[in-house]
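Chapter summary example.
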Amino acid sequence: MDLIRDRQTGRDLTESDIKRSSLLVTLSDNGLEGVIAEGGDHPLIRSHIVVQGKEATRDFLRRRELARPFGSTTLYIDEGGSYTLVPRDFTSGGVTPRHWLSDLPEGHCLQSTTISDLGIDLIFTTTEETFDECQSALQGPSYAHPAAALALAGAIYSRRRYPRTLMALVSDGHTDLCYCESGHLRLANRYTIADRVDLLYYITSVWEHFHLDKEQDHLLLFAEESDEIDSATRLLRDAVANVRVNDYGALCAHPEELADIHSPVIRLALICG
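The structure predicted for these 273 residues follows.
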């Protein structure tokens, strides 16, 4: 249980600690990252878990070290499949997620997560193998998609700071773009990218489509640090004056407390609650 000790005291988390904390987990081919935190306007991070490598992650999940009665358990998972966003009014009355995402690959299952502040359900897929592993390894997990965290962060930022904001979450092989206007989501989509040229193309295309202003409007770009991102950002500044890269201070008062966390998705989820 060393991985889930209190990072401040070094002691094991008590049952009381567990019950009043939330567990946030991201899962990818590169491994697993998790945070145990007490919620509120200023989340207290109790424990930070990092497991590197696909096989090491599977071994860790089999040991069920995270199968504890947390106040909530949310798994952010992205296996590269498609997703769609649907207004909540359209998913009531017995309409199932399958109605909105009917092209379901063999060996996959549908998941749905609600973005309450936006009145939207995000419907996506996971493999049945991953779903079965996580159901066994975690206690009552909720499944969420990284694009949900990005969209909510964009809505909050455009409501509180700058009313026209484009958000980008860059991952291996694709980027998710969300455009928000005064707290409302106007676009959310995934684009396949091979290099920085593709990234620049899709960002500038969306920017021009919504007639965003080079000097007045904002682009917030989130990604794990890399030379490719740094290079793309320098080129973007020719088209967008206000480019912020991994600027969590634009969304919260104490971004330094998130410094040890690698995943932009967990950072955004912690900030947006």
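To summarize the output: Residues 148-255 form a domain with the Nucleotidyltransferase; domain 5 fold (CATH 3.30.420.260).
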